[in-house]
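Homework-ish question, so no full write-ups if that breaks the rules, but can someone show me the predicted structure for this set?
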Amino acid sequence: MTAIVENKPAYDGKALDLTGRSGARAFKNTLATVLIVLAFVIAIIPLVWILWTVISKGYHLLLNAEWWSQSQRGITVRREGGGAYHAIMGTLIMALITAAIAVPIAILGAVYLVEYGKGTKVARAVSFMIDILTGVPSIVAALFIYAVWITVFGFNRVGFAVSLSLVLLMLPVVLRSTEEMLKLVPDELREASYALGVPKWKTILKVVVPTAFGGIITGVMLGLARVMGETAPLLILVGYSKNINLNPFEGFMGALPTMINQDRTELALQPAADRVWAAALTLILLVLALNLLARLVARFSTIKSK
Amino acid sequence: MSSPDGTEPPGRPAGPEPKIEDLVDETGPALRFDALAEETDDDGRRTGGTAVATKDDSKKELALGPVGHLGDRLFSGLAHGSGAVVILIVAFVGVFLLALAIPALADNNSNFLFSRVWEPGGAEPRFGIAALFYTTLISSVIAMVIAVPIAIGVALFVTYYAPRRIATPVAHAVDLLAAVPSIVYGLWGALFFAPILLPVINGLSSALGWIPVFDKAPGDNVGVIFTVSVVLAIMILPVVTAISREIFAQTPISHREGALALGATRWEMVRMAVLPYGRSGVVSASMLGLGRALGETVAVMIILTVPNGNDPWDPSIFAGGETFASKIANNAAEFDSPEKTGAFIAAGLVLFVVTFLVNSAARLIVARSAPGAKRPRRNRRAGATEGASA
Amino acid sequence: MSVNRLLRVGTVAVASLGVLALSACGSDPEPSGSSNPSSGSSSTGAADCPQGTLNAEGSSAQKNAIEEVISKYNEKCADVSVNYNATGSGAGIKQFNANQVDFAGSDSALKTENKDGGETEAAAAAKRCQTNPALNLPMVIGPVAIAYNVDGLPKLVLDGATAAKIFQGDIKTWNDPAIAKLNTGATLPSTPISVFFRSDESGTTENFTKYLAAAGAGAWKGEPAKKWTGTGAGKEKSAGVAEGVKSTKNSITYVEWSYAVDNKLGVAQIDNGSGAPVELTAESAGKALAAAKPAGTGADLALKLDYATKEAGAYPIILVTYEIACSKGLPAEKTALVKSFLSYFAGKDGQASLTELNYAPLPEEIRTKVDAAIQSIS
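A: Not a homework solution, just the prediction itself:
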């Protein structure tokens, strides 16, 4: 952050002093290159290490067909076997419900901030609220839904309640990144579209949003990745079940983070430890699959808009 | 605040009317730019509700003559509605949580802000957040200090330094890491990473131990704030990197090539074209990262040891502690009375007030340091172009 | 180009895999106990095997026990799904009273008094059971081990007072005279003792501090409580303290026996004053339980343990975990499920499967009483 703040804005005249001794400039350039490559190396070590840990310890269970097709019913921490089907389905169901609620609100909200309400008091209020929402820790979001869903309405703990709390977490992530992306769409594009007489809504839908689509998708993926890996709301708002339950409105439901949480208490036992890392790897692969799908969608939609 | 878009129509080119009409789909008469802009402006000043916006539209339409586009009204209504939904959600959450926290705060026999005891519930509840506040803030700040420069470096590396063949897989790998659930970071941190930090912790504390913050109690406890900070830094790195990367990649090619054409080195190009352009995006990305670090629950809970209530308070980063989130989560299973729950919710409220303040401060810094950042895009870009061609 | 094509192929592969996973019907694994292959998936003994789902939550001390029993029970009754969430005793009772689960697991019986003057746990539970009292059914005995990690110390003997002083922070190093006196001949290091405690509120902490208070000869200063009041560094849940001791040299903690065994930690022998140090075994723990007295009346089987027992060969730090269930007032189908599962749990088969998991089975006398109480549920 400091690096950026210290930088003089590009247009103040001083930053463009390209007449200095070229030796010093070349040295600075080399230094910067070295530092940037160094940052990359420093970052990549722990990240590769984590990935390696998860992959090397988890991959062998994923090679079994039963991992993808069976539940953990009747399997204890001391016993091998069973799969993660119940947890995969639970995670997918809850994440999809969350995305179905959060993404439209987030994208439309960002459109509002950038295209409609810019500079107005309401937009500032919305922006303010998003900042607050960004600061809501997952555990507080979960507590809030617990208070509403269970204490006030008297419902049971179900997967849908988890989705509701995850909406609170996903909304600001997607909205903020979408907003940033929309802001970066050059005004020339909008102006060109208006100049052709295209109405504003069509300009937004067909020009602005598609231009920013790649970035929006990245934001949605980051949001999904965040909520799919959340543990705290699952702990509070739905019981963990080793059995298959596909109904988000009734009963305990398995999910990958809670499956990890169940088995991590017995990491000293090999079958449980294997399942912890395998479940983590499965979760990562799920997000990767969604990511690839989204990129595919993005590619097709960009072609269409051209 | 400079005047909003469009209130000064002179800059806009007005095409020949008849030709535009040919291009416009079912709408018929073309909307004039100034009219369009004014409408936006006015809508925004109002409450943002659909009804108001529609009413306003019709007023404008009367003034303008031709009937407005249904799609425009619908879409604008939806966008405004979403803005309103966001406000309502947060207001509802806030009011609800405040309503739960206030009774507990009213019964509190300690100073909520400055006390370190945490004994909610019972006939004489006593709780304060001083220790939680300290641990939360210092662990997140250290995490940010480590993570943000590295994240910017990685983002620049991927966008402007690495060959494409390396950059693309690295970008995907970093995205992938954003998907690693925090519970896995926690397990990895506690089982594999913390043990190798022990020499680092011992080295730092023996070199700098005369400063209380770096002092270390005897024993080989690695479940300390410093360990948590490093793991948090690793956790937020992918998030900050991914967003920064997207932003940097959006730098207009004309700016970059302009700089290079003037004989700028690669670093000068980055410094003059890429970084100023991406500044606000990087700050937002960092804020998302900070939000995640401040609110991180499970990983902190797994790694950090909790000091007992009898020992005097230890400000060292080589001691254990509790953050707001880990405290709430660790005790969430035992929220058995409204007073107890209220105390934890009050702590949660403080957490997002803190996050919000940090957020606002950062935005203020951005606005100050970059005169163009808060202006409408046109001006900022004009400024940048002007600079590049000076 | 080739990278692009690879990406596309990968995308299609992953997408189709995803679709496959979504469309394919998942299933439950075959019962692992291949001892009775003839039974297959059809439920034998259909008479005591209802259908449905049973949700329970509570004590983490009995997690391994109940999961094993559920697994065995499902071999018999394939059409019942039993879920148990090990979130802690307090949470279990809270969820039970809030009508979120069908029965709860708890390390202590429902409290019949409330220090804060509010509604008692027992009263809240009775309200949940449509004004019928809830039963405390002792089901599993989990001994609590004092687990340690000291190089070159295969055997450690402690008594109540010394243990209390260590966990209070009054004994700070391993070669303290008090420890040396109990361990003649052992080489004790001069390093500081790192104590780990449960940072969450826990039934294990409550039982362990009850022991320290009863047998500590006044060395333990705090009141027995779910929240730790002694010295040390806190880790979350049993797994956390076990992992803490495992990864930290010269450390000590209290943890359920099974965690100490699974993590291959040293387990201290307890000198209960009878003369000879008592090693922790299923038998020595069962002996201490036999000395327990019923605290409740009638069908309520809450037990009062004697932590200060001086009986030879009795391991005094034990924890009884209960199932808390409505005596009446559940919907009929839930009643059938609760009865079916709990009577299997309290039955000979259910209890027999616990010893290999480092729990102690219920003594026969108590087991028959529990079984009778379960049969009285209606």
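Now go work out the reasoning yourself. Hint: Residues 1-7, 33-47 of chain C have pLDDT under 50 and may be disordered.
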